Amino acid sequence: MEHNPLEHFQLYNILSLHLGIFDISINKAVLMMWLVSASVILFFMAAGRSVRLIPGKFQNLAEIAMEFLRNMVLENMGEKGLKFVPFVATLFFFILFSNLLGLIPGFYTVTSQLIVTAGFAALVYLISIGVGFLYHGFGFLHILIPPGTPGWLLPLMIPIEIVSQLARPVSLAVRLFANMTAGHTVLGVLLGMAISLGFLIGWLPFGFSVAINLLEVGIAFIQAYIFTILTTVYLGDAIKMEH
Description:
Layout: E1 18-19, E2 22-23, H1 28-48, H2 57-77, H3 85-101, H4 114-136, H5 154-240
Antiparallel strand pairs: 1-2
């Protein structure tokens, strides 16, 4: 058992590799991302292996999830957003499987790495900016001017709106990273207490750790949902030019 609950999050190279100035070494986070990607692919292969009118359990789960995500896109992005359903679904399932597989003892939670969540958030934000300029040209810059703002107030409002826009990817990345890290840290502390306190008293923190582990399953779904719905909101704002 690790004495330091944060030791779980430290990464060590399993295979050191460099491509020019870039470090592309393989560690347990990289292995988990491969495993997560393979799991998502296998899930959809199982769901689509034999599509039937009366769906099996995998087909049923996949259809319910895709219908849910499609409705989310329609609600926040409108008909124009339907082309983004594959992107939104990829994000949702990768984050969900990362969160869930990370709960298995001995596995690693990819979404507990800030660089991973920041990469996803930056990708979402850059795509939303690109979509905004694609649909509205330079008129997209009006998103920095709240409706009804008097001209004399623009020098103050525009910097505030720029900061507000830049806060979006930051909050998106930190929210997912912090939730997954905090949950695993608490579990590590409780399991450490259960072992160190012995059988007579240790059952109490062990019981809490079981309850929190069950709670973590719910959090895994909720965090994947929050990240995905905010993605559709940001992309929808860019398409509809809503402030």
